[in-house]
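Standup notes
- HV: blocked on the assembly model, inputs below
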Amino acid sequence: DAKTTQPNSMESNEEEPVHLPCNHSTISGTDYIHWYRQLPSQGPEYVIHGLTSNVNNRMASLAIAEDRKSSTLILHRATLRDAAVYYCILRLGTSYGKLTFGQGTILTVHP
Amino acid sequence: ETGVTQSPTHLIKTRGQQVTLRCSSQSGHNTVSWYQQALGQGPQFIFQYYREEENGRGNFPPRFSGLQFPNYSSELNVNALELDDSALYLCASSLGGAQSYEQYFGPGTRLTVT
């Protein structure tokens, strides 16, 4: 599986935007970029995914670099509820459902 | 719509024993994946079941086995428990096997092996 690199931790203030980076320099053409987050004492939660184009949904936006070697998850207005571990995952488009989680980024949101 | 549920919530077992963990998938989902999450680590893929057949496995020994039932619920069985098996076990359901993009996770079962 292609590997992703994320900062160990980031901090933000409530109601400010948060940009969570992810590097994936060995990404292949058929790898989708997925983001999941895990709130304390809960299972992971799907956030967003994309292949080449930027994506938006009700939770977040995903900005994908033109060469696809990096991406950024954008939370437009952080809330205390967004404090979680955020995982950037590459998943082969035609593979079965295996998700390969790394260490993720611990996001702390200050009131 | 009912989400993914897992039972039991917590479990304490002794080394060498066997354990069965259960998962009910989200309504309409035919694919179940199991993950092991050690403290402070990301989840590690154990295996996946699609329409009652195992169709993918991670780097776990054969003493980790599973079943998927006709109603798509699933069991994870672990034989000859070791201390390192202490972890949070997560079940995730999805739709459509290889074409599923979103996996919906349950809250997990916390297994402690003493």
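- HV (later): unblocked. The CA atoms of residues 52 and 81 of chain A lie 29 Å apart. Strands of chain A lie at 9-13, 18-23, 31-38, 45-50, 55-56, 61-64, 70-75, 84-92, 105-110.
- Next: hand off to the docking folks.
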